[in-house]
Amino acid sequence: MTIKQIGKVKTPKFIQTIESILKPLEFFDGCAKTYGELFFTNSIGTQEILVVSHPQDLQELFNPKNNILYAPGAANEIFKPLLGENSLIVQDGERHQKQRKLMMPPFHGEQMLMYGQEICKITQQVAQSLKRNQTFIARHLSEDITMRIILKVVFGINEGLRFDKLKKLMTTWLGLTSSALSASVLLFPPLRKDLGTWSPWGRFLRLRQEIDDLLMAEILERRQQVKSNNFNILSLLIQAQYEDGEAMSDVELRDNLLTLLNAGHETTATAIAWALYWIHQQPEVYEKVLHELQGLNTLDPLKIAQLPYLTAVCQETLRIYPVVLSTFPRVTLRAVNLRGYHVASGTYVTPCIYLTHWREDLYPQPDKFQPERFINRKYSSYEFWPFGGGSRQCLGQVFAMFEMKLVLATILLNYRLKLEEKAPVTPARRGFLLGPQGGVKMSLTLDTIH
Fold first, then answer.
1. CA of 182: how far to CAs of 61, 152, 432, in Å?
2. Confidence (pLDDT) at 355
């Protein structure tokens, strides 16, 4: 059998880096068009990386029985200054597996109803501040909602001085890496120079320290009262034990709270802003989803989460412009043949979610927002995978989808919004994520639609 050669992006490394940071969709589209469904790039870091997106290749690589891929924590080193040494994201092997197993239960099970009621309540509180006929930015609204959900539902912090201080600090801190340019401070270690309070890295470190101090104070207090307050994720994590009977240390808890903040705040907020855009940009989608919501005889969060069309709207939102374009890098443990292409052992691999989600054979007219795709067809986890796959699959994906549906349902059932964008909204790099350019301008036309 003839072994086919995998193409390598010929553009100079410096140009690849600039293009992948500033125009990631055009970069991936251009590479796929020129080099095919498998190609090598060296756009980020020192390693040449194989970009993979064909479902057959993903299935071959990610199937746990094949034991081909290893997800090294070292490949995520750039996140250490952001998340800390003990973050799940930078852990390796057995320690990663144990920590992941310990952190999984609070995101599932009977406590989801309690979380759901709190999510709906928070959404109402934030949305009430909207003024009639005044333009607002949808992403600002959803960021305020998701930050409060992180603080109350995940961290279990009630409103008060510490809540307000953390909300302000964390919003400012995350804002430091919200542009492609500012995120490069994390991407390129030579730029990490503490030149005092007004230097980007110096400010980043000082804000991080203030957040650390507040979170440690909260953890210490919570350890004293954990039995009385277990309807939040932090309290459940404090009570959780590894198989040897040990509990998470204070620094493990703190670093993983920062991980949950970074992985679950702006990602979900961005998806909600995109969904509000698509729903209001297409009147037929708005009518269908509202009709489905109004057909409920009870606003039970668990019933809302099971609605098929609302689910399809959320899935199509995450398909058309996935918030994260690619997964964390992996390394092949052995040589593998992918549809006639030889991939050597020790190859760095980055599966590209965006390129899979825009395959014409899976999603005809991929640039069109069509929730019906998900009603008419069941996609495999190698065809639709906005939360990644394998051992590094997003820990909070069930919670994130649940949160997204409940926030949208609460807004749509209680407020009539209008899209104030004159032209189609396009995606733009926002730090490590892909979000709607400008955040989506909207206005409130009716306080309530009952």
1. 33, 28, 10
2. 98
pLDDT in tens, 102-112: 999 898 888 89
**Rg of the chain taking only CA atoms, in angstroms:** 22
Helix (H) or strand (E) holding 373: helix 373-376
Give the list of residues 6+ apart from residue 408 with CB closer than 8 angstroms, or none.
272, 275, 276, 279, 289, 310, 313, 314
Euclidean distance between CA atoms 124 and 441, whole angstroms: 20
For the stretch 142-199, pLDDT in tens is: 999 999 999 999 999 988 999 999 999 999 988 877 776 666 666 666 667 777 777 7
| Nearest CA among 203, 176, 212, 178 for reference residue 83 | 212
Instruction: Flag whether pLDDT at 242 surpasses 60.
Output: yes
Q: Tell me which DSSP letter residue 339 carries.
A: T
Burial class of residue 31 (count of CB atoms within 10 Å of its CB; 0-12, 13-18, 19+): buried
Domain 7-446 grouped into CATH 1.10.630.10? yes
User: 374-383 long-range contacts, Cβ below 8 Å, gap at least 24?
Assistant: 374/311, 374/312, 374/315, 374/316, 375/308, 375/309, 375/312, 380/55, 380/59, 382/55, 382/56, 382/58, 382/59, 382/62, 382/356, 383/55, 383/356
Assess contact for 40 and 50: CB atoms under 8 A: yes
How far, CA to CA in Å, does 401 sit from each of 89, 304, 328?
Answer: 20, 11, 20
* Residue closest to 38 by CA, chosen among 13, 3, 84: 3
| Nearest C-alpha neighbor of 397 from the set 258, 232, 271, 237 | 271
Give CA–CA dist 308/400, Å, rounded: 17
